[in-house]
Write a structure and sequence with these properties.
Elements: E1 38-40, H1 49-55, E2 61-63, E3 78-79, E4 104-106, E5 111-113, E6 120-122, H2 125-128, E7 147-148, E8 162-169, H3 172-177, H4 179-190, E9 200-207, E10 212-216, E11 225-229, H5 241-244, E12 246-247, H6 252-272, H7 285-297, E13 302-308, H8 345-356, E14 358-364, H9 372-375, H10 377-381, E15 386-388
Parallel strand pairs: 3-7, 8-9, 8-13, 13-14, 14-15
Antiparallel strand pairs: 1-2, 4-5, 5-6, 9-10, 9-12, 10-11
Helix pairs in contact: 4-6, 7-8
Zinc ion is lined by residues 92, 94-95, 97, 114, 116-117, 119.
Amino acid sequence: MNPFGVRFAALPKNVQCNPSSLCAYTSTDEGNATPRYFRCTHQAIPPASGLIGPGMQPFGAVVQPFADPGSYEAPIPVVKSSGASGDDILRCGRCGAYMNPGFVFLEGGTSFRCNLCDCVSAVPTTYIAGSMSTENARPEMKFGSYEVAAPAALQGRKVTGQSMLILIDCSPTAYQSGLTQQVLASVKASLDYLPCQRNYSLAIVTYNHAAVNFYFSSGPDKEPGVVCMGDITTPFAPLPRSKVMLNVAEKRQEIEAILAKVESICSSHASESSKPAVSAYQSCGGAALRSAVEVLKSQGGGKVLWFFMEVPNAGVGTARSRNSTQLWNTDKEAVLLRPDETNTFYTVLAQECVAAGVGVDTFACHVGEADVASIFHVSGATGGEVHYYPSFNSSLYHDH
Ligand SMILES: [Zn+2]
């Protein structure tokens, strides 16, 4: 019996059922997307409208365009345009459907009929001049899933390489929980595994309750420098992008020196006072994120990995508590699941990130409640990911 409660034996013999999403399986794309990328809620659809109507069965699909292929499955093929305009990426003239094995070529291959809307469109001469006759040379004619590389005309900006800014909470509570040390150790251990290191740049930025520190290299075998940005109400980028971004292949030694310096500064602060002051529980995370984005916005965009132990509660981006038990189980409960309308900091920042090509991955490790709907919006809107480690402590999460 499958997860939907339908006995396979009850289906006609010519109906093939998808494997359950709960089991390991290997699928082959023979013209239809595999259930790894596109899975309908129904294993079979009645062919007669007389059966569909009275049944009143809701129909849906789970689409995962970026799912990882199985261990023994072929990677998704990539279709590239031969020109800058992308005219030879074949699409239906009416509904915009991309070329797929269901398209029917007519009139000797000079036109085609869309299998979604029945519209007949002309085939561009550039497409005919290609290797249409060789089936293997055209993945879009053979597979149900394929990637289309965006032609130059659709690329908003020139991508020169990958840039990643690591934004680390170095407050006393973050250090005492082991978060700061864990991030520093993970970054150092990951340097060898970054893809295409010659095109990869890295920046290290830290923050606490009242300031944001930007680290830069002073040269090989020299002590790294640090610039403190203390204006947490109107944050800015105190250094140009070229100063804080270090190429992983060329500046490996300098990056490791910066990681060691951050560790040294944090440990010295922690040893000064074993009992955290009131400010230890404050964080200018919002200001730190804003200034980090300002660095990446200046040229080409990039990715921010934002680690925080304390919910931002100082400077811009302060997240207030919105959890009102009076709204639970009422029509207004949905308001709690949307970003705070009275605090537009994260929604505005998210819009700027999208325009500048900046993505934000959030690693939330805080204790207690947080206005998740507002803070995480910046990740959700920029294609980033949210990782949640409640009440993080390195002794508990050492295997993550
Ligand atoms: Zn169409």
